[in-house]
């Protein structure tokens, strides 16, 4: 049987949590209930083989966390704890929320920071998503003409998100096996 999919998210104002829950709902039985990364231990996180990781971008191109004004720990505090741990054999897909109008020069940057942290630990990242259809000037999360994961903008393009998630999950189904 295919491994269950663990979903972890960071959030301040709740948008990324809502998207995580929507993704879990769309995945049905295959997904575990989404968990706020600020409440997870590294050992619990590493117990999973397949993970979907979601983050907003805060500051200017930064991870959510105490230094970007969150009231609780988030990815900013979690990723340093992951450093040096072994994620070989694990598969990760990323999604990131941002605001391409107000933060056009650092749109969904935080996705890359999570991408690099899990790649450093040996994980395989799937779910690259085409940058066509967005209107921004720069993003660290862009590799060629694809983001390293699904980019969502609940402020300027909320109406597009549902179809983007469906298409991305169809793509992931192939990539995850
Ligand atoms: C102070 C502040 C800084 C932000 N910085 C960025 C940024 O650098 N890049 C980006 O794409 N979005 C940025 N955003 C937009 C958030 O990522 C976006 O509102 C997101 O939906 C918030 O998700 P959440 O509700 O899960 O916290 C910023 C928002 C705020 C309030």
Write structural notes for this entry.
Strands 1, 2, 3, 4, 5 and 9 form a 6-stranded parallel sheet that branches. 32% of the residues lie in helices and 19% in strands. The chain has 177 residues and is α/β, with parallel strands linked by helices. Strand 3, helix 3 and strand 4 form a beta-alpha-beta unit. The protein has a single domain (5-176), classed as Flavodoxin domain (Rossmann fold), CATH 3.40.50. The mean pLDDT is 97. The N and C termini lie close together (11 Å). Flavin mononucleotide (FMN) is lined by residues 11-16, 56-61, 97-99, 103, 106-109, 154-155. Flavin mononucleotide (FMN) binds at residues 11-16, 56-61, 97-99, 103, 106-109, 154-155.
Please tag this protein with its features.
binds flavin mononucleotide; about 180 residues; six-stranded parallel beta sheet; three-stranded antiparallel beta sheet; 5 helices; alpha/beta; globular; Rossmann fold; about 30% helix
């Amino acid at each position: 049987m295919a491994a269950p999919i663990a979903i972890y998210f960071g959030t301040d104002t709740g948008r990324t949590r809502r998207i995580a829950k929507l993704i879990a709902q769309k995945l049905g039985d295959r997904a575990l209930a989404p968990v706020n990364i600020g409440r997870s231990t590294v050992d619990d996180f590493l117990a999973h083989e397949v993970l979907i990781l979601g983050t907003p971008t805060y500051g200017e191109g930064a991870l959510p966390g105490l230094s970007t004004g969150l009231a609780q720990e988030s990815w900013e505090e979690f990723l340093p704890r992951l450093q040096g741990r072994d994620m070989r054999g694990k598969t990760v897909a990323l999604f990131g929320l941002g605001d391409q109008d107000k933060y056009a020069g650092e749109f969904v940057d935080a996705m890359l920071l999570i991408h690099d942290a899990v790649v450093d630990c040996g994980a395989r990242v799937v779910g690259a998503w085409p940058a066509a259809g967005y209107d921004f000037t720069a993003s660290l999360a862009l590799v060629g003409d694809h983001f390293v994961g699904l980019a969502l903008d609940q402020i300027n393009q909320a109406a597009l998100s549902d179809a983007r998630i469906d298409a991305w999950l169809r793509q992931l189904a192939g990539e995850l096996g």
